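Quick one, tokens below. Sequence please?
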């Protein structure tokens, strides 16, 4: 629950306090009270036709992406943006000689006012060409490692998520301090990843859009999209788009196997990773770590976070139209199992943690279960089970799932499962 309180934004509080009549939002944690709900069928087209073949599914897939864009995440701008990749530093003997470390900035040539995405890339020296995990981070590249020569990000910095480490600059905007260095290194076991023969690419999500309601004004959404539209893209769409731009860069990196780029994301960044993977099939596999509401968890299941709550606390994450479902989730033309189905036939990992009931582990599991028919269409077994597994047990085939003990986090246990998943399925 702490996590829930933690993220009560001032915006949410003031809206809440000024309306004395508004009932207290109720969050359900009682399985007996979940009630019944009817999920939309991914294999029924918009006009009611059954989807029987892979070719039918390809059309249905396009329909579903459109439905998610119109109703949930907003439209991802289609135009090709001119990018310039600039390598700013190379260390050919990083991590005690295990890795080559590169820093590469992605600039938007026609939009010099939009900040670059600054990529931190570790390549295993043991391989000429390596598959790569690509994930955005929450508090700057300097957070994912204790290495002293990674420059501190000078961008807007989320302060709540990382305690008191951010200090305000002259304009009263939070910025990173040295206290941030390595703060989330535990979540990024770079040595373990490198020793297993994988590269790691990461960038700060705030490079793409600072995570607050006005953040779009200084990110990519200030120049792309249309703020007057109910289906204009939200921050999650922008973060997902940014992952695809990093993939554009990785495709030019000779030491990267660009056919084996695995996108990974935790929590809100997990929501973005799944949406990115759904739209961009250059991602070979997708990993959702506790992405919860608006990620892998079913929206119609009344448990933990709700659509109404996420739209209230984080009004900038989704498109405007998503808010019209706050009080009638049953009218959403899609549910999140269909988002997961958009990854098919590619490998997908959905992970939960049992002290993270806010993300609704069972709802995430059921999201994966209900993506099964689409994997079957490709002759693949997805999860292959509808029985919720015991704690710390990874189940499934092309789709995998585990419910880890512990809190909302990314742990070595999670990474061990992801590495095994990648070894077995992303070949
Ligand atoms: C909040 C939010 C979740 C989100 C999480 C996070 O708890 O309600 O939807 O996943 O923050 O990103 O850590």
């Amino acid at each position: 629950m702490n996590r829930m309180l933690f993220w009560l934004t001032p915006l949410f509080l003031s809206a809440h306090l000024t309306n004395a009549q508004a009932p207290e939002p109720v969050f359900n944690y009682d399985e007996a009270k979940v009630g019944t709900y009817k999920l939309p069928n991914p294999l029924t087209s918009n006009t009611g036709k059954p989807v029987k073949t892979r070719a039918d599914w390809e059309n249905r897939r396009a329909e579903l992406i459109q439905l998610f864009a119109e109703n949930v995440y907003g439209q991802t701008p289609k135009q090709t943006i001119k990018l310039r990749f600039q390598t700013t530093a190379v260390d050919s003997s990083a991590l005690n000689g295990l890795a080559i470390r590169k820093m590469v900035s992605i600039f938007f040539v026609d939009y010099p006012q939009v900040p670059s995405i600054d990529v931190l890339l570790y390549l295993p020296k043991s391989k000429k060409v390596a598959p790569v995990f690509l994930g955005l981070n929450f508090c700057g590249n300097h957070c994912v490692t204790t290495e002293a020569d990674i420059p501190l990000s000078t961008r807007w910095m989320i302060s709540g998520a990382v305690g008191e480490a951010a200090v305000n600059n002259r304009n009263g905007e939070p910025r990173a301090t040295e206290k941030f260095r390595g703060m989330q290194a535990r979540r990024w076991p770079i040595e373990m990843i490198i020793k297993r023969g994988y590269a790691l690419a990461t960038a700060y999500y705030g490079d793409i859009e600072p995570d607050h309601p006005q953040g779009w004004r200084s990110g990519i959404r200030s120049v792309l999209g249309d703020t007057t539209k109910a289906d204009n893209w939200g921050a999650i769409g922008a973060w997902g788009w940014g992952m695809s731009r990093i993939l554009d860069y990785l495709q030019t990196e000779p030491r990267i196997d660009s056919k084996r780029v695995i996108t990974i994301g935790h929590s809100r960044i997990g929501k973005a990773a799944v949406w990115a993977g759904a739209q961009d099939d250059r991602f070979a596999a997708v990993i959702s770590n506790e992405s919860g509401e608006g990620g892998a968890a079913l929206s119609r299941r009344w448990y933990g976070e709700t659509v109404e709550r996420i739209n209230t606390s984080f009004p900038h994450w989704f498109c405007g139209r998503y808010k019209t479902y706050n009080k009638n989730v049953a009218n959403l033309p899609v549910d999140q199992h269909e988002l997961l189905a958009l990854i098919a036939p590619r490998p997908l990992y959905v992970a939960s943690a049992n002290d993270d009931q806010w993300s609704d582990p069972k709802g995430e599991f059921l999201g994966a279960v209900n993506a099964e028919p689409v994997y079957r269409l490709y002759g693949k077994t997805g999860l292959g089970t509808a029985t919720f597994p015991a704690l710390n047990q990874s189940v499934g085939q092309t789709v995998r799932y585990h419910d880890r003990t512990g809190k909302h986090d990314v742990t070595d246990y999670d990474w061990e499962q992801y590495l095994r998943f990648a070894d077995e399925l992303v070949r």
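Residues 3, 7, 267-268, 292-293, 305, 310, 313, 358 surround alpha-D-glucopyranuronic acid (CB under 6 Å). DSSP finds 13 helices and twelve strands in the chain.
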